[in-house]
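Render DUF998 domain-containing protein in 3D.
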Amino acid sequence: MKVQNGSIFRPENDFYRTAGILLLIAALQFFMAINLAETQFPGYSSTTDTLSHLGGAIPPIEPSATIFNVSVILLGVLSLASVYLILKSGGCRLFSSCLAISAVGAVGVGLFPSYTGSFHMFFAILTFIFGSLTVLFSYRLGLNIPMVIVSIFTGFTSLTIIISALLWGLNNPIIIYLGLGGAERFVVYPILFYLLAMGGYLTSRGEDWVRIRFTRGYF
């Protein structure tokens, strides 16, 4: 069986620019929606309250709940659309699979708010873990060295907090120091900001963005 080791440049099917625009819109609208939802949630604390609390408080706080849940679903849907375009253009399947799973998780977070309990937790963990892996494996798209360095830094920042929570629970020193809401933001925001950067990168590079193929690659 032939395994695709990295991205393959297919100039006849080049949809990377469109995929980058979708990622840029997806991340930007979600970041803005978070900030808007926080302003509409009386007494909300970014230190003690999670992002999901914006859309899953009991009783739901409106319009905060609708803003957050619709936005996170849109984040997932637009990311899935970008995955389709990246794969159609010859993009790496490992990266695309991680982004697709994370996107499905984001849709699940919106459809099953935090008051649904285990369903929400499952989709949230799915989003966090595969979101950080998406960032780490993005080098396989043929990005330049500065973007690869940024991906390593942001990806491991998110992954470190995720691993600490899985190994030592919510009472580990990182979460105690940052607060539950603060620690979650150090998981979500690096992923979100990197998607913004990568969306801009793919959008601006256009047709010549992957002259270096990772079947020969950097590493």
